[in-house]
Amino acid sequence: METLSGRALDERLRAFLAEDVGRGDVTTETTVPEGTRARGELVAKSSCVVSGLPVARRVFELLDGELSWESEVEAGSAVGPGTRLARLSGRARPILTGERVALNLLQRMCGIATATRRFVEAVAGTSCRVYDTRKTAPGLRSLDRQAVRDGGGVNHRFDLGEMVLIKDNHRRLAGGVGRAIAAARAGTPETPLEVEVESEEELREALAAGADRILIDNQAPETVARWCRIARSSPRPPAIEASGNMRAETVRAYALAGVDCVSVGGLTHSVAAADISLELAPA
Questions:
Q1: Does 179 have pLDDT greater than 60?
Q2: For 20-59, what is each residue's pLDDT tens digit?
Q3: In this predicted structure, what is the pLDDT of residue 191?
Q4: 72 classed as catalytic
């Protein structure tokens, strides 16, 4: 389980700040006297699941090493509108300069955690787990994945080196499911192997070739249930994942069909940011 922290996190956040600040925060520098101090609160304006407060804190700390910060809620907490998430105080100029980057990251992470929690709650009482995908914003994958964990979800492979995942283009270019699996086994025998299937014929071919995990993509729950029964009856039953336009309203049907997990690209590729504001006053 990777976590972006320490020097790596600082480098990433400094790059985000440099992008946003540009040649300088001309508004703050011309309107707020140097030395002015401020106190503030981060407040949830919408219901959300909390994620990313340490990241937001670090944004401000990189601009003001003497910043005072107190988190009010734990990661993974579900909060309602009006909830105070954190209190901070320090020099006003750095707080104003870091506000947008801190809020962008915090709102995104809370949005991802909130969406994940909806899916986790939708499959509650089953053995199905909710996975993310690699459909993350470039440069934000570690933070996106942390938010998924805070929402109660599970991370899929972090990068292309963690697992062989044979998808439709791989199958076609390799000459079919069986050939693709055989080639992958020969080339990297110790790496976990998953294969996407889109027909019962491909499913049976993947089972015969010994795939560790089967990804059933874009099928109705009834079809998924039938394919799960076929897979479970094989001599070495693989783990089974379902994907393809998963929605919180329909995901439970896939869980009840018998899959071990569902993967949901929408958790990170089309996240709705939580509504959070920073309210400042003179200290």
A1: yes
A2: 999 999 999 999 999 999 999 999 999 999 999 999 999 9
A3: 97
A4: no
Catalytic residue among 84, 87, 167, 179: 167
The catalytic residue among 41, 72, 198, 217 is: 217
Closest CA to 84 of 39, 115, 120: 39
Query: What's the average model confidence in pLDDT over 2-12?
Result: 83
Given the residues 39, 135, 179, 226, select the one marked as catalytic: 135
Instruction: Identify the active-site residue in 99, 196, 202, 241.
Output: 196
The catalytic position among 39, 84, 87, 100 is 100
Residue 45 annotated among the catalytic residues of the structure: no
Distance in angstroms (rounded) separating the CA atoms of residues 195 and 168: 9
Tell me the pLDDT tens digit for each residue of 203-237.
999 999 999 999 999 999 999 999 999 999 999 99
Q: What is the pLDDT, as a whole number, of residue 263?
A: 98
Mean per-residue pLDDT, 140-165: 96
The answer to whether 100 is a known catalytic residue is: yes
pLDDT in tens, 100-124: 999 999 999 999 999 999 999 999 9
